[in-house]
Prior knowledge:
eight-stranded mixed β-sheet; 8 strands
Amino acid sequence: MPVLPLSLLLVPTRVLLSLRALLARVALAVAAVASGVAFVAWAVALLLRRGPRVTFGCHRREVAPAGLADGTFGEHRELRLRGSGLRLHYVTRGPPDAPLMLLLHGFPQNWFCWRHLLQEFSRRFRVVALDLRGCGDSEKPPGRDSYRLELLLGDIREAIEALGTPAGTPGCVLVGHDWGGLLAWEVASRHPQLVEKLVVMDAPQRGVMAAFMARHPSQLLRSCYVFLFQLPWLPELLLSLGDFQLVRTFLTSVWTGIQDPARRLSEQEIDSYIYSLSQPGGLSPPIHFYRNLFRAPPPPREPPPPPTLLLWGSRDAFLDPRLGPAHLRWLRPSARLRLLPAASHWLPDERPRLLAQLIGEFLEGGAGEGS
């Protein structure tokens, strides 16, 4: 067949693909604007309720809260990545020659969310709680492009290669929550030789999430903050209002916060998350994670090869608990799912002892599917 007719036959397909991409961009823009309007309404209500002085007043925290920067939960160290030269901060606990357990936090948190598991697993593992780039005490390179998904994944890969035991054949137990879980899914799929076992908490794999949202539009409302974060400058402003009242609401409100009254965060623990966000330039880097989310390359189609444990809070306000079973249908038959009754999105803070039990059983080969 001549080349010209063949090219003409491809024109309709190219047009349809271009139209589909355009419609997706328009839908994303509409969702972002709608979310922006809703959150601005929240800000107006805050202003009317508390007044301009409280709403626009932001307390600059000069000193880190106790436990965040001292050695209470482990030794603070820094890792300089070979490829990018980026400096990553981490907290470690356990024998230096023990197998590596790498813990990856989510938004709006930092390494501090793993303070309990650092203590629980430090007898068997060299536990490392990493501050992702732009978060906590890790380096914060400027600009949105510095937080592309492929760069975040490269950071994790290099960290495992640098910290893994024994040297030369690095591997780890990889544990991720929220954004840390999203990264853990893809590291385990793209670099299975680096991950011996995978534990993910309340974090969707991008492909599974897209398919789930198409069938369950209610997840769009739960994810409204993701669309808000696509806008320039407005998310940073809204998050900082009322001395980070929106962050406090995420972590502590009746609907979105920790459900167990006995495990509610203290003011000092909340400050441990707000501290780095309140520093100059501290808010934009983690929001850039979300701004780059819809620009990322397609997710892996195949499930990660390593043995996998998925943990999900049954009262997660941000991510529909039905995402747990949706992932189980995608994962390999050996994967395990545990739905934690009456638990929120914030599992590392709310259920540390149960997490330690379930993860411990899984590492020993005993954790099974549950609800």
